[in-house]
DNA sequence: ATGGATATTTCAATCGTTTGAATAAGTAGA
DNA sequence: TCTACTTATTCAAACGATTGAAATATCCAT
């Protein structure tokens, strides 16, 4: 059975498609009586409106595309969740693409979204991405572009980022306040701006406290558990008594290393991770971590899209990070 | 600047839109030379094809909708991820809706997807959903409907579900094999089919081993950590020495309860959870759990969509669950 | 009745692409 | 030279909804 169209409804009621169309979108140009008749008939015939036709005529789709490296990362799925809730309430649909961290797939995702005439694109880049010509393509097509988390600063659009600098600063200061004196860091990779910013925050906190920055305690090549474990061992041999880790998994490795050496956490060794992965609060001892706010970030990105009237082509929104103090760093039970 | 269309390209090259259209989709009816000219000009003019127009003409969109309660749940985001990878490779876009566990939003999501002329809908229901009339609407619109995880058996479509029964059976048997003799269960809520199936598997395993089923050790009201903790305490008082939990969080609570009583895990108390949440392998002692295979489930659902030619309106695919043996239940280090 | 304002509906073009049928041009065989 | 067949292109009608302008219908005051 063919799908009913407004023309079908019109025929049944001896009206024209124009009137039916207007009736269905509640135009005041249509008599109340007619509206009701149309609505009844539409329901009766199982009419579903065809958004494609409607959008084609109108020029844009009420759709926003979101591009992320991986959907099944706690962080990204929460961003999507936040964005989706805002966008849905505003009457937008959300088209999601994952790039699997591949540049090529990111380019393809942009193309796909443009083909679909999306009104906006909210994107966090794949790790491989360094060229930005695909973004220009989007900017030239008058879609609103919002970058989040992993952003390129040289693109004139709205950016939503974590306040990595202050987060790392706070974490490091927290360790200092707890009396640790040789504080190292598992800093992540310097190719990424967020890790560079965290490292800066870490350094600043040490300097502000009058402590010296020891380059030997800064490890710029670890983000996973295994290397975190290995680097932490090295650090411990250098007399390190606490670490700020730019990732939770490397922090986990560090905890293992400390335990293996027979050190007590937090008494002999303190640690704060980053991201507040959900395992951090479930382990024993529970791990302190700077919490990202992905849901909030998604909402902010969506809001930025909704507010973006093109007047402010190059703006930046920072989402604060929150230190979750837990057992792994709270040396003085009573202290704050 | 207006977007370039095939008509614009046609004019520039003194051709008709028909030829340009055919050239761009690689039709063999167009001379090689012309194709090249068209492609060059298209690139030159920054042409992006308009999928809406194309779909409108063709009748369906190359789009599949996925409806889940929450995107930011490990399980669902992995299902989406799996489905997305298969669908993308097959040239489909994925439109995602989350219902926030609300029935009303589920109905709206179905409507939205139908408006968008999706070719198929892959859905896991919200906890509130009990009425299925919105699904009939979809079935009547010749979209292919695939239910997964939380499914209604009375809908004639393809269903993809976890093999809860065998999973629970295996988990329980594993505990029995490790010499535990008073095995209880944190069974989840009996309103949900998956928990009922897990309970059945648990019971069968006991019976097959010649053990008796003690109703006092079956708790049908817990799924979260707090109640898991409370129920486990009761169970321990009744001499329970191991539990199969239908969820990881309640299992976590149970471990806490056992530790608090001074019991050693796994020597004095064994436990196996369900879902293989990522904290389970990171804690100490690591927790055994029956792993769901969400990524695989997503792939299976997508495959089912792609294969669905309507010939097999009511079929069921079960995804096996895998027991992850870890410290919390492996009493005999050497045993298998 | 009649002019005029207002309410309601119809007309007709349009959004950009696709596709069956028609046409034109070129090639081969008789 | 004529028919038969390829090959390449154009024509024209869709797909379903929207929207400005034009056309009617309705109502009111004179």
Spell out the key features of this protein.
Rossmann fold, homodimer, 6-stranded parallel sheet, DNA-binding, alpha/beta, 6-stranded mixed sheet, 3 domains, 336 residues
Q: Can you characterise this structure?
A:
With 336 residues, chain A is α/β, with parallel strands linked by helices. Chain A has three domains: 6-49, no CATH class; 61-162 and 294-320, Response regulator (Rossmann fold); 164-292, Rossmann fold, CATH 3.40.50.2300. Chain A has twelve helices and twelve strands. The first copy, chain A, has helices at residues 6-13, 17-24, 32-44, 51-58, 74-89, 103-115, 133-140, 164-177, 193-208, 225-237, 248-260, 294-307, and strands at residues 63-68, 93-98, 120-123, 144-148, 158-162, 183-186, 218-219, 242-245, 270-274, 288-291, 315-319, 322-324. In chain A, the strands form two sheets. The first copy, chain A, has a six-stranded parallel β-sheet with strand order 2-1-3-4-5-11, with helices on both faces. A six-stranded mixed β-sheet of chain A has the order 7-6-8-9-10-12, with helices on both faces. In chain A, α1 packs across α3, α6 (103-115) packs parallel to α7 and α8 packs parallel to α9. The model of chain A has no long low-confidence stretch (mean pLDDT 93). The first copy, chain A, binds a DNA duplex (30 and 30 nucleotides) through residues 5-7, 15-22, 25, 29-31, 34, 49-59.
């Amino acid at each position: 059975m063919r799908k009913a169209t407004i023309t079908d409804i019109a025929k049944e009621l001896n009206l024209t498609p124009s009137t039916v169309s207007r009736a269905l979108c509640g135009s005041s140009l249509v008599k109340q009586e007619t509206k009701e008749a149309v609505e009844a008939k539409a329901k009766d015939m199982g009419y579903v409106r065809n958004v494609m036709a409607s959008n084609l005529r109108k020029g844009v789709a009420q759709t926003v595309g979101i591009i992320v490296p991986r959907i099944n990362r706690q962080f990204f799925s929460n961003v999507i969740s936040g964005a989706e809730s805002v966008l849905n309430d505003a009457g937008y649909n959300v088209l999601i693409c994952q790039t699997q961290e591949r540049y090529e797939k990111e380019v393809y995702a942009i193309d796909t979204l443009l083909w679909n005439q999306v009104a906006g694109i909210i994107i966090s880049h794949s790790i491989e991405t360094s060229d930005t010509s695909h973004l220009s393509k989007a900017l030239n097509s008058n879609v609103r572009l919002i970058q989040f988390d992993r952003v390129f600063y040289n693109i004139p659009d709205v950016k939503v980022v974590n306040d990595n600098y202050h987060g790392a600063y706070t974490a490091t200061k927290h360790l200092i306040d707890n009396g640790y004196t040789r504080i190292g860091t598992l800093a992540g990779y310097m190719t990424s701006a967020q890790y560079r910013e965290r490292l800066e925050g870490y350094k600043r906190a040490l300097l502000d406290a009058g402590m010296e920055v020891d380059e030997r305690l800064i490890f710029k090549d670890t983000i996973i558990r295994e290397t975190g474990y290995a680097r932490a061992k090295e650090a411990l041999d250098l007399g390190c008594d606490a670490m700020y880790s730019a990732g939770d998994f490397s922090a986990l490795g560090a905890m293992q290393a400390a335990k293996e050496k027979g050190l007590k956490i937090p008494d002999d060794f303190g640690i704060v991770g980053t991201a507040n992965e959900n395992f951090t609060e479930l382990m024993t001892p529970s791990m302190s971590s700077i919490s990202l706010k992905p849901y909030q970030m998604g909402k902010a990105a969506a809001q930025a899209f909704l507010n973006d009237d093109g007047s402010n082509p190059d703006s930046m929104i920072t989402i604060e990070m929150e230190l979750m103090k837990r057992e792994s760093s709270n040396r003085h039970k009573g202290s704050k």
